[in-house]
Design a protein that fits this description.
mainly alpha
Length: 82
């Protein structure tokens, strides 16, 4: 939604994000990106992919890696198989 005539309610959006439980996952993603930046890894054009999806209960302790955006975003978290 574009805010053309009113100011964007950043505070309200932040509160909604915390209420939905998205805040902690966003912080985990941010920590992973910063850790790679601190090591001096060039992550231009790549996504930081977690070994176990954050939406499935993963964390940075489970590990993360650099991956192409198309490969990282194509996974839906469901097991393939039978």
């Amino acid at each position: 939604m574009a805010y053309t005539k009113t100011k964007r309610p950043y505070k309200k959006e932040y509160q909604l994000q915390k209420k939905r439980g998205e805040h902690s996952n966003r912080m985990e993603r941010q920590r992973a990106r910063r850790a790679l930046d601190k090591k001096g890894v060039n992550r231009k054009g790549k996504d930081v992919s977690h070994n176990k999806m954050l939406s499935k209960g993963g964390s940075n302790k489970d590990g993360y890696r650099l991956e192409s955006p198309s490969k990282n975003r194509s996974r839906n978290g469901k097991k393939k198989g039978k």
